[in-house]
Amino acid sequence: MKRETKGRIYVCHTYYHVYVACLKELTLPKAMRGGAELVLSTMSNDFGDLKGRAEKSGLFDAVYMFEEKEEHAFPVLARYHQDRGNLAANLFARMKFTKLYGKLQEPYVPVDFKSYRDIYVFCDSDPIGYYLNYKKIRYHALEDGLDCIRYYDTARYDNRGHFKLKAFLASLNLIFIQNGYSKYCVDMEVNDTSVLRYPCPKYIEQPREVLVRRLTQADKNVILRIFMEDLDGLLEQLRIGDHHEKKVLLLTEPLCGLEVRGQLFRDAAARYAGDAQLIVKPHPRDVLDYRKVFPGQIVLDGKFPMEILNFVEGLEFDRVVSVYTVPDSIHFAREKIFLGDDFMDRYEAPEKHRFNEQIK
């Protein structure tokens, strides 16, 4: 029986991924809209009620949950990470790992990916990348976060040492390398190729800001309804303390251990918020209870990407502060402070976060 051909499907691991999928759908010509589907991986994120809201939005025909499994779910894989003493033996073991890891995902995959015309995968370093290459299914990769490869080139860091050889093997589908190096990756969509240290033939540039500028207010309202379970509640929170002359938004991230993380963001707030009203926006994967870290301060719901705040009419902060979250896409703050590696050096050994400096 001939397989029915469907249109587009997006595999998302984070709220930001879903946000970009929405941008891509809403900025298509109207004649091309409709027919897209969404897959939400539960591997590293709790999407809460997002599935239901995305289904009700009318933007996606169907939304599926994907119980994607990390390596530790399959103890048999551990043997392939043992150092065998030489490059050839290690690469041979990796070839076996690549195929087996993809095969072991198969029972958990919720759709027949071979039936889709275009598959868009955010963060193909996750098991879905191994699965699609195991099944020899072509797909489009998209960067995990805004300009993330600029600060952490995972493909080259994970494969430092003999990278050209490994990239060649990946092009033959003998091993797997993410971010545009695998055989069945058609292309790799990034925000800005000019900021990337190493080129890749499959990189294509699609600036996120170009997509945002195409949105109508009606489009923005669709996105707000998908991500904001309680928009009125958010607005009420932000109105608290309107008598303050200045408002500072602090964006958290799941950095270091919980105790060090709390101190890290207390220090950032003390240095950059001062006597301004502090509003904390937790990262969706950050499990630290910031109401205890910042008692008496406003702590927003973490389960939405910070870019959504751009669509709240009239919202404005004097300053936004982040460590590694790239703030370039923020329009609701007069000043943007990106702390980066120099700040992180105070809280953990530099080799734990200065990844690009370790690539040779």
What descriptors fit this protein?
13 helices, 17% strand, 7-stranded parallel beta sheet, 5-stranded parallel beta sheet, single chain, alpha/beta, 360 residues
Word description of this protein:
The structure is a single chain. The chain is of the alpha/beta class. The protein is 32% helix and 17% strand. It contains 13 helices and 12 strands. Strands 3-2-1-4-5-6-7 form a 7-stranded parallel beta sheet, sandwiched between helices. Strands 10-9-8-11-12 form a 5-stranded parallel beta sheet, covered by helices on one side. The longest helix is centred in the N-terminal third of the chain and has 19 residues, at 87-105. It is globular and about 65 Å long. The chain starts with 5 loop residues before the first strand and ends in a 16-residue tail after the last helix. The mean pLDDT is 94.
Brief write-up:
The protein has 360 residues and is α/β, with parallel strands linked by helices.
Most strands sheet: 7 strands, parallel
Strand order of the largest sheet: 3-2-1-4-5-6-7
Low-pLDDT stretches:
none
What global shape is seen?
globular
Mean pLDDT: 94
Please provide the ordered H/E string of secondary-structure elements. Answer: EHEHEHEHEHHHEEHHHEHEHEEEH
How many β-strand runs? 12
Give the structural class.
alpha/beta
User: Total helix count?
Assistant: 13
- The portion of residues assigned to helices is 25-40%
Strand residue content = 15-25%
The N- to C-terminal Cα distance equals 50 Å
Tell me the Rg in angstroms. 21 Å
